[in-house]
Each structure stands twice: as structure tokens, then as C-alpha cells.
């Protein structure tokens, strides 16, 4: 990884902007900032400085996540620095902080790695002078007051004790002390126009005192990349068109009446996400009104995105090529045929493979029902309304009379996702995200949503890439199932000894497809060994294929699981020392010891248990007769 010192501000120049000195990075100057562990002097440039109490910074950036901008009173990091991190926590949140004061806002996916996005940040420093009356207790005055209070005090007729009234100058003295405070506001947003599409506001108070007065106002701006905490390989970010200037009065007036809007992401979002966002904004308004009513601090409600999307909603650093075209369209197919005839190229490209063999063997379609009794309880089948071949009684399903059912949005297909399920539990437990991304690499996957030990979702940048991957990597399962399925009869019962197998499920009608080749682990790590293979079922994902919250417990691994050896389809069952010893004992009992003389001298040995000497003699005579017949002919 390059060091932080490779940050170079070579294209910084000074110009006059509204009678104030400002720093500008020109269009041809692009900064490449590598991931960093902490702020340093290299992240700030002395020319990017404006001595003003109202600062506006505009810039464009390309980043996968964790684009950090900081305002500091000096050309380096300070304790009171204001920092905004766009696309924090894997491009899932945006964070504003100053010291311990931190605000996390819901807008996600505000960073784009493949296109330039415009951002703006504004910092307004409002100085407030307050007078505070502090009582200075003088011990000498208190002692003098106690000494003068003697028995000369008298009581009136009613027996009420009256004390002498002290003079004003004898009371403890008071002094008026002025204290400087700062009511600062930090705004961030997306777009070319500052003050528009604001996504976050941080209101903060700084108490001036010894040390703080020397550091104010904030003059310098710095850029950084805080992506080192990412599980994937940290990717550098690029910045251009940086413009730092003092804020105009019109913009300051607009910012005073501004409220943060939850602009979810740069690109357009789907209807489901918009509905979730509206519900989240409503919850925020209720929480804010409740806090104002009871005088409590406002606490932001939890994020509206499901946990399974929060966990892996990030871009793939090695995203493949995506066409953005519907290759199943007849017009596109005609263009492909014409191009193939013109240039003489094959229709399908050879898929990248980690296998040593030149061509892969297609998995027999009967293996889709292998281990069916176990897979049926673990597999997440689509709802009947989304089956490829709908059931006849699907339309006849109605709620029972006399019951009021809650209005639930019907499930729908998610064409950008592919849902995969592994038939082989032990082998798939060694598989990780990098293995799945490599399996779909030439189709441009974006990220993987893990739903459990046996299933996950793979999201692509468009529905056409997902359709290409589904069509080229899998084969259609016949519906109804074949009459004879040896794979379903080979199921080994690990839970019970009952020799019962349910009829095979109509996987083809549900929309399931069987992968043509096995998923292969590409590298050895602490989770498993390189070369482990697992068979997959895949289908288009639905809106029900999500996890709403993080699981609190995980199932125990299968009996045959081990991260220290290569696993495959037959590794779900244990290979214990007791079974090995039993097989060795059976093999020893099935053969005569070397010292034992043969039952038939010069002839067959009784090497097979269960055969008598007479049977062996008959077999020997039959062989002799066959040999003589062949000799005569």
C-alpha cells in the first residue's frame, strides 16, 4: 500500500474570489489520495486557506467509500477539527463529527467509484459574547460579619429576633466576566450548488478560552481517505476542481433556514427504497417532535435498510464489464448473429476457470435433487405467485372470512439479484465472498448479501448482467421432475435411520436452475482449503430474500466439516476414526492370514466370506470347462 506522503497538491493556485483569497485546484489537476490511518500534515495544503468565519468548499471526487473532508484552524489536524466522512461504514452512512460530538445520518451510497460526483461543505462560525456574574466569596468579609454579629441584637415585643442589616459594601463582592462562545454550524451536501440537496447538519458550540482563541477561526481544508477499515482491499480516491472561498451573505442566509434532506444516493432509487425512506423520515419527525416536547436530546431512529443490505452494500473493486443491454432481446440477438457471421467469432466466450482441466464437465441435471430431504428444510423457495410455472390453485387463495388481515405488499422479483443455494453444506461453509465474486467475475457483480451458511444473494449493476450470468452459468431444470431420480434415493440420513425419501420437489416450476459447473474455492485461508467445490442452485431473487436483522446464533457445522482439508459434494458426512477402524477390521476378516494354507491346494483360495468349498469347486470346474471349449474351437 502506498504511504500517505504520496499525496501531492501540485495544481493548487491562488485567485481572487469576491475580494477574498481562495485556493483552487484546476480541472486538469487530479489528486490521488491513498487510504490513511490518521490525519497528518500531508493532507492539508497551505494554499487551500481562507481566513474567514464563513467558509465554503466545493469539489468533485471519485471514491468507493470513506471520502473525508476536514476544516482545521491550522495546516494539520487539531482537536477541534470539523470532519465529514461521505460514504462511511462501507458507503452506508455519512458521518459528521467534531471531537466527541458526532452525527450519523442515513443517506447511503453517496460515493461513486466510476463517475465524478460533486460535493459541497460549509462551515459557519458565529461568535457570541455573554456576560456572566460570578460571586467572589471573601473569607475576610465573612469573618468580619460573624464578629460584628454580637449580643447587641435585640428582639421586639413579639420575641422576633431582628439582626442588623449589613451594608452593601460588606457583602461578598461580585464581578462581571465576559466569556466568548461560538455557535458553529457545519453543513454538507451533494451537487454543484451549495445550499441545495443538503444531507447533513452538525450544530456545535465551542467555548473560547486559553488555547482555543489562538486556533480560531478555521482556515484550512484537508482531504483524506478513511477506507482502511474495509474488509476489501482499500481503494484510493480521486479529487478535482477543489474551490475554497469565503461564504457570501446570500448563501449564509440560505443555510440558516436549511434542513437536512435524506438524499439517499447519487443514482435514482427504486420504489421500495423510496417507500422505506419516507417511512424513515416520518419516524425522524416524530422523534424530533417528542424530543422538543419533553425537553430531551434528539436521538436518530435506527437505519431503515435491512441488515443483510447494510452488511455488504459496497462496490466491487474488480467489477467486470457490464453491457447495459438486454441480450435476450430479438434485435440484440440479430445484431450478435450478424456480428458473428461478419467476424467469425464464437457466440459465447470461454469462461475464466481456476481448474487445471481445459474444459469443465457439466453437472448431470439429476443432481439437483441430491440430498433433497435435507435441502428442502434449508432452501428458501420463492412464493407460489412468482413461480415460473404457477400452480393451478394460486389464484384461489383468499383470506378467510371473518378475519381482517394486515395489508402487506405482495412479493416481487428483484431482477438485479441472483439468489443461490448450495446443496453441499460442509463444502459451502468454506466458501467466502471472494470465491463467489470470482465465480461471477466476468459478469460484473457488485456485492454479496449473505443470508446463512447455505444461501446468499449476488447483486449486479443492472438486470441485464444478472440475466446473462443466470443464463450462461446454469442450466434449466425440467418440470415435472424425471420419473427415476437416483440422486434423490442416494440421500444418506444423518439425523435418523428411517429409510424414507419424500417425492422430489418440482424445482423447475419454482424457477430454480442448476449450475453447470461447481463453485470452487480460489485460495487457502483460515476458513478452508483451495480446491474445495460445491454445487449450486440459483434463481432470480425476490423481495423476500433478505435478513431484517443480524442473526443472534449460528448453527453448528455439519459433521463432515473441516477447514484443514479439501471438501466436496460427499463431505457432509463424518469421517471419524471409528468408521475407519471398522472398515479396516472388516477388510481383515474378509481375507485369510498369510500363514493359513489354501483350502484348495493349487486352486482357488477361500478369500470371499460366505462361500463354501463345494461352491468354489463348482466354480473351478466351470472355468476349466470354459477353457477347454475355447481350446477346441
Automatic annotation (TrEMBL):
The lineage of its organism: Eukaryota, Sar, Stramenopiles, Ochrophyta, Bacillariophyta. Residues 136-147 have a biased composition (Basic and acidic residues). It holds the Pfam family NCBP3. GO terms for cellular component: nucleus. PANTHER family: NUCLEAR CAP-BINDING PROTEIN SUBUNIT 3. Residues 136-157, 321-341, 549-633 are annotated as: Disordered. This is Uncharacterized protein. Residues 592-606 have a biased composition (Polar residues). Gene3D superfamilies: 3.30.70.330. GO terms for molecular function: mRNA binding; RNA 7-methylguanosine cap binding.
